[in-house]
Amino acid sequence: MEEDLSGKVAIVTGGATLLGAAVVEALVAAGARTMVADIDEAGGARCVASLEGRALFHPTDVTRDAGIADVVRVTMERFGRIDYLVNAAACYADHGPDSPRTDWARSFDVNVFGAAGMIRACRPHMAAQGGGSVVNVTSVSASVAQGGRWVYPATKAALEQLTRNAALDLAGEGIRVNAVALGWTWSAPIAAMAGGDRAKANAIAAPFHMTGRVGNPDEVAEAIRFLLSSRASLITGTTLAVDGGYLALGPEGRSGAAT
Ligand SMILES: NC(=O)c1ccc[n+]([C@@H]2O[C@H](COP(=O)([O-])OP(=O)(O)OC[C@H]3O[C@@H](n4cnc5c(N)ncnc54)[C@H](O)[C@@H]3O)[C@@H](O)[C@H]2O)c1
Fold it and tell me: Is 247 in the pocket of ligand 1 (CB under 6 A)?
C-alpha cells in the first residue's frame, strides 16, 4: 500500500506537461497538496482543473530568481509548508556539435540553475519543519553517449552531480535529495516524435529498453512518490534509474550476440 501523504505539501516544476501532470496527480491522490510551477500557463491550468484545490498552478519561470521566490512565497501562503520538491522543468535546446552558446545558456539555466535555485529557496522552509525531500528528474542521457546531443546530456549529468552534493550538505537538516534517470517515457516530446502513435513509440524504443516499450508517466510518478515519501528514508544522494532497463542493457542489445 502506498504511503499516505496527507498534510504534506509539494512543489512540482514542469508540472504542466503530460509527464509532470502524472506526478502531480500521483501526489494529490496520495493526499499531498501540490503547487504546479511552470511557464506554460494553459497547460498548468489544465493540469490542476480537475484537482479541486488540492493542486494549484502558479506561473513560474525557473530561470528567474524572483519567479522562484514568488512561487515559494505563494506556496507558503496557500498551503503553509513545503515538504517535497520535484524539479522536472526542462529545456531540450541542443544542436549537438553545432550547439550555439544560446542552447548551452538556456538549457543550463532551466535544467541546472533552475533546479539549484528551487532547492535553495525551498530549503529554509523544509529545514524549519525538520526535513523534506527533493527529486530531480534526470535522464539516461546523463550517462551514455547519444549521437547529436551535447547540451541536454551535459545538463542532466550536472544535475546528477548536484544531487549528490546537495544531499550531503542538506542531510543534517533532514532533507534528502535524489534523482530519477528516465528512459523514454510517454510524454509530450515522445508523442510529438511518434505523431501521437504509442505503438510506433514502443516499436522505436523496443531495441534499447529491456521492457521493449516506452515507460508510462504513472510508472515514473510512482517512483518519484516513493522517493519523496518517508518509506525512502535511508535513500539520499542517489540516482534511481526508472528507465525500463535502458542503462543496464549492454551493447549486445536485448537478444544477445550469441543467440
Ligand atoms: N520524455 C522523456 O522520455 C524523458 C526522458 C528522460 C528524461 N525526461 C525528463 O522528464 C522531465 C519532463 O520532460 P518532458 O519530456 O515531459 O518534457 P516537456 O517539454 O513536455 O516538459 C517540460 C516542462 O518544463 C516546462 N518548462 C520549460 N522551461 C521552463 C522554465 N524556464 N520554467 C518553468 N518551467 C519550464 C515546460 O513548460 C514543460 O511543461 C524533464 O526533466 C526531462 O528532462 C523525459
Answer: no
